[in-house]
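Closing statement on the flavin-adenine dinucleotide sub-project.
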Amino acid sequence: MTLPSASGARPSTDVIVLGAGIVGVSTALALQQRGHAVCLVDRQAPGRATSYGNAGIIQREAVRPYAFPRAWQALIRVAARRGNDVNYHLRALPSLVPALARYWHASAPARYAGTVAAYSALIRHCLDEHAPWIERAGAQDLVRKTGWLEAYRTDAAFDQAARAATAVATDHALDHALLDRRGLAAAEPALRNVLAGAIHWRDPWTVTDPGELVARYADLFTRQGGTFCHGDAATLRASGTGWQVSTSDGVVEAAHAVIALGPWAADLTARLGYRLPLFVKRGYHRHYGAEAMPSKPVLDSENGVLLAPMRQGLRVTTGAEFAHREAPPTPVQSERAEELAAQLVRLGNPVEATPWMGARPCVADMLPVVGRAPRHAGLWFHFGHGHQGLTLGPATARLLAEVFDGEPPYVEPAPYDPRRFGA
Ligand SMILES: Cc1cc2nc3c(=O)[nH]c(=O)nc-3n(C[C@H](O)[C@H](O)[C@H](O)COP(=O)(O)OP(=O)(O)OC[C@H]3O[C@@H](n4cnc5c(N)ncnc54)[C@H](O)[C@@H]3O)c2cc1C
């Protein structure tokens, strides 16, 4: 994907972007749009890691990031692994405790209200920031503008969720509809009659192959003169003029480097001496054949299982697994998700031999890290998008690019600034 200049030589580079998931590719595009020569570096093709395996929802409604449960009933349920939405590895807990303690602290109602204000300020731009790139990348065939369904099995749970959804929709000017059992059956005939009702979030867009969307954005970037190189971010070094990284096309040097390595960001930031409260929530998916698929994603809310119609089949995704990123997969949630999904639709055979596993890049205060590295000139951080990286990649990339260029930022940048964790 490297595009040489007319003379055949590599164009000189202003910025190295490390990581070609949705966040890195969006960073590269946003900086390129402002006239910077960008080299995007990844050890694999763009969009093949976490940005491949997600549920594909550009979550315009996600104004409230996932908080750590505070009610003791909820904590006991999680600790006893009673639900399918959360799993954890006991042996990982000691090393996760510091970040999880900060996550719990940040989830206290008063602090959380401030987080929602900051988060919703970004989320509100997610569709507008994706829209021009979807068009210029020729990716309209991957995007549906019909929203998604937050479904409930019991009347009591649906009634409670419907009241909460209506309040959130009113506060944040979101478009939603409440579908009772009958309305849901009429809207989605592929669903069996086991759901009491659903909240139809109508603003969000859904992507039928999120990895392919990122690949098309990366193609747009290279078509417009950007450079993509295979390389290992671990080779990043300070050089006389700024930063350098070794790639299969040779050493690339630039005045600036952006770390956009998603769940791998801490490998590099820790080496550079930063102690950031980062952790991962692992997640699984598997595709299945289905006689008939729902027309839009359906969340089985009480079980943390989402059914998303994708190009590869019906993608059944799981909730969160607290574990070390590299620990061997323990797809118990995925196995249970298959049983639960089969209660909702006529599920066919799995497409893959084993479930896919990825890791959501999370930050204890639930806000992404966007901005200048506190102690290294020319180094920038852009990671930690948690449950909504596909949604937010272009929106936070614009913010980063504006701060980078000293333009007035379109969203107040302080809540996401890496300096909030100290130097
Ligand atoms: C099951 C599941 C469902 C989800 N559903 C949604 C959803 O519906 N909507 C939504 O908005 N978000 C969703 N998410 C979250 C979303 O997928 C992530 O927030 C997002 O993909 C993170 O993007 P990223 O670019 O930061 O990381 P990644 O996509 O992981 O990109 C990081 C890149 O860094 C590269 N890299 C790592 N180490 C090195 C190295 N040493 N050298 C070179 N390259 C390196 C990797 O190869 C990778 O390409 C979901 C996540 C999961 C797991």
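The first helix runs from residue 22 to 33. With this model delivered, the sub-project is considered complete and its resources will be redirected to Aim 3.
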